[in-house]
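Lab notebook, bench 4. Continuing the backlog of folding jobs that were queued last week. Each job is logged with the same field layout so the records can be merged later without manual cleanup. Today's entry covers MFS general substrate transporter, a 497-residue chain. Filled in by technician R.K.

JOB TYPE: sequence-to-structure
TARGET: MFS general substrate transporter
LENGTH: 497
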Amino acid sequence: MAPPSPQLVPLEEKRTPVDEAGDSEKHEYSAAGLSDFDFTPEEQRRIIRHVDVRLVLTIGALYCVSLMDRTNLGAANIAGMSTDLNLMNNNHYSIISLVFFVTYVVFQPPSTIIVRKIGPRIHLAAITVLWGSCMIGMGFVSKWEHMAGLRVVLGILEAGFFPSCVYLLSTWYTRYELGKRNSVFYMVGCIAAAFAGILAYGIMQMAGLAGLNGWRWIFIMEGLLTCILGVGGYWLLVDFPDSKRKTWSFLGPREREWICARVQADRGDVEPQPFSFARYLGAGTDPKIWLYGMVFFNTTTITYALAYFLPLILVQNMGFTVAQAQCLGAPPYVLAGIVMYATSWWGDRYHLRGPVVAFNMILCLIGLPIMGFHPNPAVRYFGVFLTTAGANSNVPAAMSYQANNIRGQWKRAFCSATFVSFGGIGGIAGSLVFRSEDAPGYRPGLYACIATCLLNLIIVAVLSISFYFLNRQADRGERELECEGDDDYQPGFRYTY
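JOB STATUS: finished
OUTPUT FIELD FOLLOWS
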């Protein structure tokens, strides 16, 4: 267990004075302690709540449409797209599902560099509006090849969103505040996107309007919603806490200094060093980064498989009608939201990450066999609840696991991009595990998901045990942890297992 974060205590430190306009050209932070900037505990809580509302809820709303737009194929498929575009032949549906992830994975590593250079407001708002426009175009395609092409473009545009959000969140909060914020960010998007099935069912009723089938209106209306939120996001999104860009109307300069100083005391990397490809790519020599990525790959294989194929499974395997399947996809995500927040709160409270990941995987290991093998459809649907809760709760848990154990801004940027890229590869796997020829039982897909859960348990055990012994060595003064060089050195850093 890692030691608690440093407390905010008064300290004489060298700082650049703030001028009358309320801005400062440069800030120096001491790793030995912090200034409380004359804020009372209540004022400190108010500042954090302000950041929570402005940052977490805004990117959560944008993530909602992101998740909805990349996974609404399932709803559109059973709403007539499969027939109109001839998707049941030669695995066309699986193809248009997976091509998204090819570009989604390839274009993620540059995104954390771009977002650092131009800022989250411009980067995230622009790509949101652009992929919303792409979604609108999907409502007018006439061939499955055209749909596949637009899915490729959608992958390019969405590639920059999730890793940039993960990176942005990690720069604003201390390590043991991050779990709850990751869970709320993902929970807002996940639960809202889950109700997209109900929204899609309502939009389907527009079938015939302007001569368009219902599934086309799903893409058109959800694309319009995405564009509107993207425009609003430009005004609501915030920049990095150390940014010198003039985007700070929601926080005063003293509040900004306090945010930066507490993060500096927690992990000592509030300001990035000058960018160099050698340093950025050199982070890839750390094997932990690839193991974090594998944890996320195993997790997203299950989450995307559920997102793309749960409507089909509910119809073909459990005997529900199309209307029932559109609506029954939402309740399991409500349970997932409860579980992910409860486990994230517990992880933050007790400074633990690995046990949370393991608990979520055990939920999946209980739910998957029930979902796949029980003879009663109602009981199989209960298995969907457990599987959905475990898999989706593991997304913010895995995000916090890697964020707590990485230091250095450019290493953090590389890790965020690599981490989410592995999640995109998991999306490719998730789009393929439930093959049409395996319907209605989809047994090979269930076996694959069970295997990913078991692999996650093994990886987390290896990482957490190694963290325990590395922390012990550091406690005895035998080594320093995550020491990337003199600029990034942080005395007292310990891994969170």
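OBSERVATION: The domain at 45-271+284-472 is CATH 1.20.1250.20 (Growth Hormone; Chain: A;).
SIGNED: R.K.
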